Amino acid sequence: MKKIILLCVVLYANTLADLTPILKGLNERKDLEKILVDLLNEMTRLDDEITCMTFVCDAVYLNVFDGDLFKRTAAVPIVMIVVEDYEDLLSPNFDTLESLREARKDGCNVYVIFLANGLQTSRLLRFGDRYRILDTRAKYIMLHDYRLFHSDLHYLWKRIINVLFLRYHSISVGAPKSKAWFDLSTVPFPNPIKGVFVSRRVDIWNNGRFHYNRTLFADKTSNLNNEVLNVVYLDHVPSVVVTKTNETNKVGGVEIEILNTLAKQMNFQPKLYQPINVDLYKWGQVQANGSFSGLLGEMVNGQADVALGNLQYNPYHLELTDLSIPYTSQCFTFLTPEALTDNSWKTLILPFKLYMWIAVLLVLLISGTIFFGLARYYMNLQEFKKTHVVSKDARTYSEKEKEYLYESEKPAGLYLFGEIINSILYTYGMLLVVSLPKLPTGWSLRLLTGWYWLYCILVVVSYRASMTAILANPAPRVTIDTLKELVESKIACGGWGTETKKFFQKSSDEIETIGQRFEIINDPFEAANKVARGVYAYYDNQDFLKYISVKRKNVDMNINSDVNATTANGTEMISMDVERNLHIMSDCVVNTPISIGFHKNSPLKPLADIYMRRIVEVGLVEKWLNDAMHPIRALETKEDEVKALMNLKKLYGAFIALAIGYSISTICLIGEFIHWHLVVKRDPKFDKYALDVYYMNKNKKQ
To answer: Name one GO molecular function term (predicted).
Structure first.
C-alpha cells in the first residue's frame, strides 16, 4: 500500500534546517525518531486493524519525520498535518480543520501529536473532543507535558484513554556511559482522577528496546476492576420503573436490567442517582446561560458516566452524548380523549345499516302494493261473477243454492288488503311477526303471504340477534386513531420538551398542522387530566401512555414513587369519575429507536455495544419489557373486562320509540278533534241524532 503524506502548512526551508535548543538535547533528534519507529512497528505488528495514521507536528518537531522514519515503518497510509507555532488550535485555520476532518473521514485510528507547546496540544484535544473532529477512541502518542494534566483537562482523560505519553530523560549526571531513555506512561483509567493527575507507567524504552515488553495499548474497558460508575436515571416506564416500598425506592425496568448485565460483564459497580429537580426538568434542556439542566445536564457536565431514561436515538441526543446501539424501537403516538356521544337512543335502528334499512322499507312498500293489487283483482273478479254470472243463471238455482252461492262468493279476507293503507299496515304487521286475523281469498295471495312470511322470519331473526348483541355489549366508542382525525378534532396537542415541538413544526402535512398548536407540558399526569376533559392530546411512547392512563385510574398502584392524589407540581388530580375515557391512538406518528446514553466520546461505548447486541439477539430485552409492563397490562385487562349486563340506559331507544308513538298518536287525536269541530259539525247536513244517515249519504257522494 502506498503511503499518503498531506502537508497543510508549508514552512520555509531555513526553518526546517535549523535545530532548536529543544531538539539539540535529543542526540541530534535520533532518539525520538527511533522510539517512534519502534512504537509504530510494534503497533502494526500486534494490531491488524490500523487503517491510517495521522501525524500532527510543528516546526520544532518536523525534523523528526524525515525520510528514514517512513522507510523503516510499515506501509500504512499517513495524513501529516504541520501547524504554525502561533496557530490557535482551539479554533484552527481552514487547512488544519479540513485535514483533521479528512483524517477522521478516512478512519485514521492512530494519532501522533508532537507539539512543543503543550497548550497548543491541549487546545487541539479540547477542540477535537468538542466537535468530534478527533477520534477519541483511536490510539494516541504524544509528548509528556505537565500542561496537559491541568485539572481543567481531566475530563479529556476519561475519554482519551488509549494514549502514550513519551517523557524524555537525558544522560544521567556523573554517568558518562549512560544513554538517553524514554518513560512511556498512560492515563490511570478506569481509576478516577482525584485532584492531581498521576500517570501510570507502561514501559521504558532504552537503547532501542522496551524494558518490560508490556502491551502498549491494552484494553482498559473489558475489566473495570470493580470501579464505581455514576449512573443518572429518569423514571420513565418501561425503561426505568421506580417502585416505592416504605421509605425506599426500588429501581427496575428494561434499562436497569441492561445496566446490571453490562456491570457484570465489564466488572463495574453502578451508582444510581437522579438529577436535581428531576420532576421539573426531566431530560433537561438548554438554559439561558448555555448550560443544560436535568439528565442531559449531568451528561454534558461530565457528572455521570451512564444515563438511563428512554433516550431516543436522534441527532439532538447524539450531539450531546454517545448513545449505544438501539435495544428496541418504540411507537410514539398521542393519548386522546374518547368522544362522549351516547347512541343509546338509536338502539332500535343500530342492528341494521343504512342500506339495509332502505332495502327493508322498499320491500315493505313494494310488497304492500302487490298485496293491494292482487286483492283488488280478486275483489273485481268477485263483483264480475256477482253481476254477470249469478244474475243470469239465477232461475236455475233454488233459494238455498242461491244463498250458499252468494256466501261463497263473498271476498273473505280480501278486506285486509282492499285498501292501500290497510295493505301497507298488514304487510308491516307481518314484518313484525303479527299474524293476520284471517287468511285472504285467492291462491296467489296465499302463496305470496307464505313466502313473505319466510322473508319476515329471516329479517326478524337477524334483527333480534343483532339487537341482542348491541344490548349485551357496551356502547361503541368514538375514538381518534389517525393523524387526520386528530387534525380535524381541533383539540390542542402537547408533549415534553422544545425538541419535540420542533420535530412537529419542521415536519410536513398533518404533522406540521399539529406543530402549530403543540404545547409544551412537563407533567404527564396534568396532561392526562386535560385529555380526560377532552381538550388535549398528549404525545409519548405507547407503553408510557398506557402506564399513565392505567395509573390515573389506580392511584394506589404501587409502581412509581409519586403515586398519590396529586400531580408532580402539587396540583390536585380531578376525580376518577372523569368525563371522558383515555384512548391511545392506534396509528404511530413515528417509530423511534431507544438507547442508553454514555457521556460524550465515552470509551465504554464500543464494548457496551457488543454486549448490547448479544442481549438483544437472545431476546432478553423483550422478556424484560414484558416483565416491566405485566402489572400495567394486568390492571388494564381487568378494567376492560366487560360483562353482558342490561341497564336502563341501553333501553333508551325503546322509550324514545314509545315516546314518538305517543306523540304522533296525540297529534292525530288533536287533528281529529279539530276536523270534527271545524269541518264535520259545520256541515249543513250534519245531524248529530242521525250520524249513520249522514255518513251513508256522504259515502254515496264519494
So the answer is: ligand-gated monoatomic ion channel activity
